[in-house]
Amino acid sequence: MALRIDILTLFPEMFEGPGPLSSSMIGRARAAGQVDIRIRNIRDWTHDRHRVADDTPYGGGAGMVMKPEPLVEAIETVRREGGAGNSRSKVVYLTPAGELFNQAVARRFAQLDHLILICGHYEGIDERVRDLAIDEEVSIGDYVLTGGELPAMVVTDAVVRLLPGVLGNPDSARQESFMDHILDYPVYTRPEEFRGVRVPAVLLSGHHAQIQRWRRKMALKRTAERRPDLLERAALTPEDRLLLDEIRKEKAAG
Length: 254
Ligand code: ADE
Fold this sequence. Notes:
Trp Operon Repressor, Chain A, 2 domains, five-stranded parallel beta sheet, two-stranded antiparallel sheet, 39% helix, elongated
């Protein structure tokens, strides 16, 4: 069964037109039926003439709060549509107060049958929605956006590219999970020389083993320089440790 993703939003127009969820790999995955993405307007679950989805906060203060009734009814409806009681379904609220999103969370979501993403706006959602209807809260980074729509697109993109058959090369997702804690090695294409800068000779050598070794070394070097925190969590082989020693020696030698 293809993963189904429902995105609940007050601003469905942010997902309309040839945007990030209709282009490139995600667009192709949708067309091929590898994922079923549906954009749902929370206002469709309001009951008043003006389709009001927010209200002022009890206790006073700035901003508006998203009302509980439309949101909880929307979540209940899409849950039921996806097969209620399905243990492989999850309701995720996008908020800067959530758990930080990363590749491990993306892999976990890619295993589900049904992912329901809730986009917040204004000052947030009524706390009772959290208590009654939200399984998890996720943040895409330590900065504050105007709403959860861009985070929902980010999460959707990261999850869909992990689904079976979505990446051109069936091995690339698996290989990547193995390489999770190491940054990419530098890549080059034609021409051999550009503005006086040559492509590293080893890449033109045709020597496969040496190319692999150089790539691994450059990836480790880059990770050590930019993200030493990642290296600590990486599964390093004895060969990796030798390469890191080499890198340290070269650095010390200047
Ligand atoms: N809503 C606003 N900012 C956000 C963020 N950084 N992550 C997830 N949801 C958000």
